[in-house]
């Protein structure tokens, strides 16, 4: 479909005004009432492109090292720790993609790729070491009441002895938040095995985006008065969900991890839809819009254009995210 035809459809939708928004509200909640269940736990697969291609095989292999671990859980942990950056160093001197401090690496680092070296900076060693360490911790806390994966993550953050002494995830806010963030992020990295519940705030986010139709695009735009109320693509989606109380990251490829990923045939109004220069890697995402149904999104496409309706079925269509409040809260502040 040509851009001109997209404008014709867009014009018809704009002409429907608030009736269009109300249809979306009704449609989203009718669908919500008809969908049973959510993301099923225990999925062993990874969502399309969620893990950078360079690390996907490692995460898939080592994420199945023990029953307490899954590839999606390992991916969520690595993303939380480093944002897939193999050269990062934290203020506490935690190093590499898995953020091992030197003392822990000396004890628990393994030679994952069999080259005779244990290199904390090499993801081929660090990712297997993270999985190995997780599974070792899971053994330590296997008899502790509660969910073994939760207790494993708590042990990673606070130490196994604190988990054993507390009889579960200890009452330490940092540790409790760490476990909650990782488990929420896990849903973003797991390939769903059933239908995903709709986002309750979807209609409000769409309503905000619709109110900006015709606004000129601005690179780096976040809608401020100084910017004339203009947006770029991720600035628009961020502002739309901020309107309904959900804080998204500023950059499109980070917004991709704000919830689970419905397939193309399961899209609902309010889902964020993404486009990438590399269809195997979410870090190569270059554009985002808000799905409104019928194969269309509202987006801020590029310099010289305005916020408008565009078709989503293009060669660079990457996938979608159903934004959740917990998923957005779980995202690391720097990635």
Write the layout of secondary structure elements.
Elements: H1 3-15, H2 18-34, H3 53-62, H4 71-82, H5 102-108, H6 123-140, H7 148-158, H8 160-166, H9 173-189, H10 202-211, H11 233-242, H12 252-255, E1 272-276, E2 285-293, E3 296-299, E4 308-311, E5 317-321, H13 325-330
Antiparallel strand pairs: 1-2, 1-5, 2-3, 3-4
List keywords for this structure.
335 residues, single chain, disordered N terminus, 13 helices, alpha+beta, 5-stranded antiparallel β-sheet, 5 strands
Helix content: 40-55%
DSSP summary: helix tally: 13
Backbone CA Rg: 21 Å
The secondary-structure class comes to alpha+beta
Q: How confident is the prediction overall: mean pLDDT?
A: 86
Shape: elongated
Q: Strands of the biggest beta sheet: in what spatial order?
A: 4-3-2-1-5
N-to-C CA distance = 36 Å
The SSE order reads HHHHHHHHHHHHEEEEEH
Low-confidence residue ranges = 1-43
* Largest sheet properties: 5 strands, antiparallel
Number of strands: 5
- β-strand percent reads 5-15%
């Amino acid at each position: 479909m040509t851009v001109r035809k997209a404008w014709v459809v867009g014009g018809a939708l704009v002409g429907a005004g608030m009736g269009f928004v109300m249809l979306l509200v009704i449609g989203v909640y009718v669908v919500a009432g008809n969908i049973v269940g959510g993301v099923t736990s225990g999925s062993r697969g990874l969502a399309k492109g969620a893990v950078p291609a360079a690390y996907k095989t490692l995460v898939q292999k080592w994420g199945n090292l023990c029953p307490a671990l899954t590839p999606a859980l390992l991916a969520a942990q690595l993303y939380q720790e480093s944002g897939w950056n193999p050269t990062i160093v934290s203020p506490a001197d935690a190093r590499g993609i898995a953020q091992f401090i030197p003392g822990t690496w000396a004890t628990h680092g393994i030679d994952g790729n069999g080259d005779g070296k244990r290199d904390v900076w090499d993801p081929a060693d660090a990712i297997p070491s993270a999985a190995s360490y997780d599974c070792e911790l899971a053994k330590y806390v296997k008899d502790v009441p509660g969910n073994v994966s939760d207790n494993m993550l708590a042990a990673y953050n606070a130490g196994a002895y604190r988990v054993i002494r507390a009889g579960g995830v200890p009452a330490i806010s940092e540790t409790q938040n760490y476990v909650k963030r990782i488990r929420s992020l896990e849903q973003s990295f797991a390939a769903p095995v059933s239908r995903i519940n709709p986002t309750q705030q979807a209609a409000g986010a769409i309503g905000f985006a619709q109110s900006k139709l015709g606004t000129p695009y601005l690179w780096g735009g976040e809608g401020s008065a100084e910017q004339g109320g203009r947006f770029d693509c991720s600035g628009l989606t961020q502002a739309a969900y901020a309107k309904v109380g959900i804080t998204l990251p500023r950059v499109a490829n980070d917004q991709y991890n704000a919830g689970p990923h419905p397939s193309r045939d399961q899209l609902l109004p309010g889902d964020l839809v993404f486009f990438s220069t590399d269809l195997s890697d979410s870090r190569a995402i270059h554009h985002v819009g808000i799905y409104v149904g019928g194969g269309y999104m509202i987006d801020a496409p590029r310099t010289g254009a305005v916020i408008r309706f565009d078709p989503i079925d293009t060669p660079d269509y990457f996938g979608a995210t159903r934004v959740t409040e917990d998923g957005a809260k779980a995202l690391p502040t720097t990635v």
